[in-house]
Structures
1.
Amino acid sequence: MHTRRALSALAVAGALSTALALGADAPLLLTNDDGWKHPNILALYQSLKKLLVDGSKVKPVISAPETDQSGKGGLDPNAKTDVANGVDRDDPAIHWVRSYPVTSARYGLDILGRKTWGSDSPVLVLSGINDYRNTGEQLPSSGTCQNAVFASRRGIPAVALSGVARVPTAKRPDPPEAKSWDEARPVYAELSTKLVGQILGSKDFSEWPKGVWLNVNFPDVGGKCTKAGDFKWVLSQIDMNNLSELRRSAIIRKGAEGRDLEKCNLEDLPIEQEVLKNAPAGSCLVSVSINDSLEGRVEKHLNRDWTSDMDGPGFLPGSPFEKEEKVDWSDMELVGPPVTSEPPHRKEYDEEKYRKEYEEKYRTIAHASLERTKIVKKILDDILSCK
């Protein structure tokens, strides 16, 4: 098994060029942590089916959790693929798995990949589009991001995609001009598809470093930012400082004063929150962070369910609780083994305990080295606002 995985990881870079040379479809795996029926992943799936790379199509396959599993991080306790699963009755390329996000990604690679593409190595793994941003403290507990970490540790290029559009709430107000998800979703899907086209179409794609994954966060859609063409792509870095939210916000505000967010100084990139929260009005900046899953600081927390003792999907204490989605069985066909257990339910959180664990988990994501960042920047150069 380990030999096969090593060989498949080495073959990823050449798989795309071979597929395109033969006029074949380029295989892509789509997953998320919000569930297989979430409209965001379905919109991305439909958009990608229209993408052409050097005249050839991509072949996306969805393998996602049956229900919302937000905040489950990299939980994959049994590391098995023999879990209850099913397929959409109307589209055999859309699958669900009754387990955690990373388990669904593993199923997509180990089972669906071999059935669909004849290999467990798609040319790219996409996770999302998540229905809120994933920055800083959310990354270790985000199933969206940990799916990308998992794939990249197998040697497969991976991208986590997140957006911030949502109906405003008292605890999480959005700008008054921000659009709803119904209006923002097609914009985010188009932007994501453009990014995929750039990655797969780059002559330098074969140089993508093993273990590297992208964390992409889209800003609000609204005001001067209503079409995909209005947005600019900016390199950023994840916030590795373990600071209080109040202190961090003050530092971000101070750092944003006079900073050219599009300068793209690889030795001094703005943090993601600086791009998303402090960009000048109407600048429409998408943050793109280049991260490394092989730094040795990730493994410790991959199999931790961060929602087991808190009331929110991977956010700070006090975040609104999102109830589990009720499953609609009308268009599903159960094809897996009998269900023996369900993922654990959320419990009331102990705030002090959570804050200590929050401080610990916050150090488990690493930004890619300057050398590896330069390689990926070269692949993305044509869409970046800085050259």
2.
Amino acid sequence: MARLIRGRDDEVYADFGALGVFVEEDGDDVVNLESSGDHLARVRLEAWDARPPAPGDPWIFVEDTTVKGGSGFVSVGSMGEAAVERLCVGPPHFLYGVTVHTQPGGEMPEFVSDEQFEREWEEREPERWLIRFWPIRDVFDPVRHARPDRAAGRVPLPVEAPVSQAADWPAARPGRRQEAFEKWCASNGTTVADFLASAGLAPDTPFDRMTAALAQRELAAVAEREGWPEWWVELVGRYPDIVDQWHRVSGTDREWAPDRREETARALAESSRAEEILNPDGRHTFTADIQAYSPWVGGTYRGWRWDHADRPAHETFGVGRRVVHHDVMSGQVLVTGIVTVLGGGRGGKEYEVRDAEPAEAARLLCAEAVWGEDGATDGRQDG
């Protein structure tokens, strides 16, 4: 039975009657949607572990297609509005099935005054879209998807690419909060549907909508108990994923200046979601230099660090670890290992990472073999 892994709700202005579902790191794949004029549309993106059942009435079928998944992240935008909300639909470089359903917006009355038209427009039921993804098969190609930054004049070697299953990847599993919630329900002799009913929510409410609804209910009490300022309460109301991130806020940090708060909160929420999705088991994280050009969150690369020679090896680079150089005078060693990026660069090339999972590491090792010995040591792969 197909299982809903995660979902995201978004509102996008359909400019010129068109919307686009964009697949990151694979610009060739875009799902174009024809909308009914210029208006605000409500979009629901969902990631499933297999083909989901049809949503039923009142949803209207629009399309059943496939896309190559790029980085595994997708978003929806239009000509007049850039995509903002991103959903991780699963592991990178898989072929994904996609179904699209819609519910038309409310009809507008004809021959009314401008004032009445404006009122009707504000009150009309918005157009809705339901876009679902599920993994079909691994389509990783090291020549196309793991090309080194400086590959001009280099000839790839014929190396067989590893083939993984979606279940081998953390991104294809529910986040640790969802897993913990489901285990809590089971240990307390209740079902998820029963819990939702007791909370006054529909029995089929997805986990992301449930947590957002419960967080909104508790927001006022938590804000009063924690002594949050009004501006932080408003941001948490819009971005529930940052509810436990108040400790990161500094009154002297320019990123939280009034004109940057919205942007910073959105980025923090995105980072929190990505970390939970890509590290569902809560494995040890650390920082590493990534020398690839524009590494993306969820990508796997060679990481680099100068560490003290006596630092326990298990603390950093537990996969593909290699000591490249020993600086006798400082007592430090230059170490490399295979890691997956969880968070954006800090201080230039420094990223928050964890050790790569076997399926992730297999792809990078394959890419290093395809592109030759220098690719194995200079950390420039785009995994």
